[in-house]
Amino acid sequence: MTQQLNKKWTQGMFSTEDWWSAWLGLFFFGLGLLSIWGLDIVGWIAKPKTWEWTNLMQDFSWHKLLKTSSTHYHSLHPLLSLFITYLVFAFLTGLGAYFQKLNVRKYLYGFTIIFFLTWLAWIAGHEAHLSAINAMVKKHNYFKEYNLSWGLQLGGGASYLLALIIGLVIGNFMKNFASKIKEAAKPEWFIKTGIVLLGIKLGMMTMKAAGFTYELALAGAAAAFVAYLLFWPIVYYIGRKYFKLNRSSAAVLSSGISICGVSASIATAGAIKAKPIIPIAVSSLILIFAMLELVALPPALTHLSPNEPIVNGAAMGMTVKTDGADAAAGAILDQLMISKHLKQTGEQWEEGWILSAALLTKIWIDIFIGIWSFVLAIIWVRNVDRKKDQEKIPKSEIWFRLPKFVMAYMLVWLIYLAIMYFFPEVVPSAKFGGHIVQGPYRKLMFMLTFLSIGVITDFSKLKGMGRLAILYALALFAIIAPLAYAVAYLFHHGMLPPVTK
Amino acid sequence: MKQTKLNPEIEELFTHPEPWENWESKLIIGSILLAIVGLTILGILINNFILK
Hints:
The complex is a heterodimer of chains A (about 500) and B (about 50). Helices cover about 70% and strands about 0% of the residues of chain A. Chain A has about 500 residues and is mainly α. Chain A has a two-stranded antiparallel ribbon. With about 50 residues, chain B is mainly α. Chain B is built from two helices and no strands. The longest helix of chain B has 30 residues, at about 20-50. The chains are: A mainly alpha (about 500), B mainly alpha (about 50).
């Protein structure tokens, strides 16, 4: 406890995953911002193109599969661009792995495999039969251009699903191989970095539609506040009364299950000094169920409520645990709903708004968990540990529990707002670099997340946790999912993303 | 049929449930009341100023 009280505010700045998400995200953001001064030092990154397999077989060329992200680097061969992308990401994340005290050699070995498998999924997912939508998208109708007779029309969702499937196959059927690359399977780190970069997208979206962005942020905050205060006590009560959990277990499970996932269960366990096994067991359940939600919820919501995209996004943010799974599910939902709406109406919603709705509710919850952990710590000291520990909980604990990647996300957004209000003349050049960083850079982090999340998901871990798993499933599907949808509906109904012109 | 044996560490989660105390009731009720108040006030504000 004394050690805890003497923590410096800078503690963990170079050694935690959370801080490294912020550093990496801000570094890429800074590189992109240099476009304000006419410098393009981000455009070398590779990005996949839509292709069709018979067309490719007739005349194979890497140029049909990949390209650089900006015209300044078009002279680079696509494979060289991909190799540079690998070197830069391996170096930067390897640096982070070193400071986080991971085994760097193992990390680089695992990262190399995960990186290239991710690209395999990303390129394969752009095959026209999987991704092309029969409508004009960014001045192209690839469905017609390739003269397709059939197609799944999944848009960008196809790549995400493929990466997830590859990861799950490795995690569940190739366990020896999975254990060899696990050092680099860091979905939370990758997605948190991706979320920081999403701050750029939110900034650019604000430049286009400031009013709607603020409305979305306010509605998300209100919904998250109400939902958390409803979910936590209900799950705690059921856990204690009907599943006979002890207090610590019920509290950790409630925090983990009700909204906030792994980080919340760890934060709560720390706040109430629960035994280490409790957050570990709860975290395994959270990860496994998050995977089920990730696979089931986006298509279910797209099918059941096709006309309420923002409600669906916000409900997703409140239902899916872990930032990684939520962002991943939000990204799939975004793509599936845009594709469905486009197919049905010929009107294309702007990409990113549904995902942002999912993330904004989640981000408010992430902020809230710092405060909630603090409240729980005080309650536990006063009521549970009062006899053995009378020490005060320092207010600095709120700082330590505040997710730093969320701060970086907000900072990036605020910098874009400042540019918009104070330097409107540089907005077009700021958008140039920002567009690349929030595009291929962010999507690469998302793709790495999907593959990694699959690699570390081992469904056999559910064995022996029957009772806990039943409580989790019951709370999730019978209480949290319907309540989340109701709260999301109350605060977001009728909101629609802007339409792409 | 072979019964799955509970991991002893997981079993810890279900052992020694303490008796329900008054402060727990206050925590639960307080939280739900705050949620209802929040739902009402924020709901009215969001509906009037954002969704309409």
